Amino acid sequence: MGNHFTGVGNYIPTKTISNLFFDNHHFLDEKGATILQDNATIAYKLKQITGIEERRYAENSQVTSDLGYLAAASAIKNAKINVETIDYIIFAHNFGDVRYGTIQSDMVPSLAARVKHKLKIQNPYCVAYDVVFGCPGWIEGVIQANAFINAGLAKRCLVIGAETLSRVVDRHDRDSMIYADGAGAVIIESGEKNIGIQAHLSASYANVEKEFLYFGKSYNSDHCPDTKYIKMHGRKIYEFALSKVPLAMKKCIDDSLYNIDDINKIIIHQANEKMDEAIVKRFYRLYDKNTPKDIMPMVIHKLGNSSVATVPILLKMILNDELENHHINEGDVVLFASVGAGMNINTFIYQF
After folding, report:
1. How far, CA to CA in Å, does 264 sit from each of 33, 65, 272, 341, 350?
2. Which of 128, 140, 209, 225 has CB 3.0 to 4.6 Å from 116, enough for a Cys bridge?
3. What is the pTM of this model?
4. Do β-strands 88-92 and 156-164 pair in parallel, antiparallel, or remain unpaired?
5. Distances in Å between the alpha carbon of 117 and those of 110, 179, 186, 277, 298?
């Protein structure tokens, strides 16, 4: 028996933000000095490294829980279930609801509770809670749901990943161009066939690594000096990801009943195209193999980095046959993986 996805949904915001949007931004370095390169060059280099040429932003009237609800409703419709039969709602995010034009995070009540309210679920034993685990939050939510089902504490769970990173960026920081908004969700439940989640692994590195992603002041000291925004040490994250993520992926496979040649797809957090390519290349090198063609789908070019939402958004797009050369067929084995603030890493193997 395996715990598997019976419904998958996503919500991709309709506001398309191209790199031209940042033409008039005044970018500064960490010391507050103006970056000498013009913004067109900055955008070009960003695209060369991350692959990002567009990203999506939520409508001004929307907040993270709104996006999560829309993705959840999509997954529920796909699963064709009665919402009153959901035992757990697990909502992965990092910054709560941040209304447009503000920077204040609103996390009380939980975003999961807000989604439960929007879904009009009356069952008090449908437990709703949030997961704050950096970008790997949605995968961690899936791992927790899997554990609840295996322990007999649940039969059916809704796992959501949603974020509006556009609300927590410093407009004077070049890294603000990376971030995006979006949401994805799945219904996961037990089944009679031996499909679904086959193995998983999670890890947290919280020594010097905990400072790699953080909340810090604007690079413009005159701009809201007491307000903090998402910040990162990009080079340190890159080096950490390359050294730790491939090893975690390998351990997950080695501890399972599968081998490297069984993997049909790798769905990895859409953080940075070059970084993801390097992670997968190093992963296959651990087995003395070359990276197979079309093993890793990427949508960061058009959707940017929406943190916890990137993996479930991508999953739904593949299952909908929206990506050329990327399909998932019955029996395929897919390796999911993510890395992010914490620093946290997780991965799981799923057979469709």
Report:
1. 47, 33, 21, 28, 10
2. 128
3. 0.95
4. parallel
5. 11, 28, 18, 40, 34
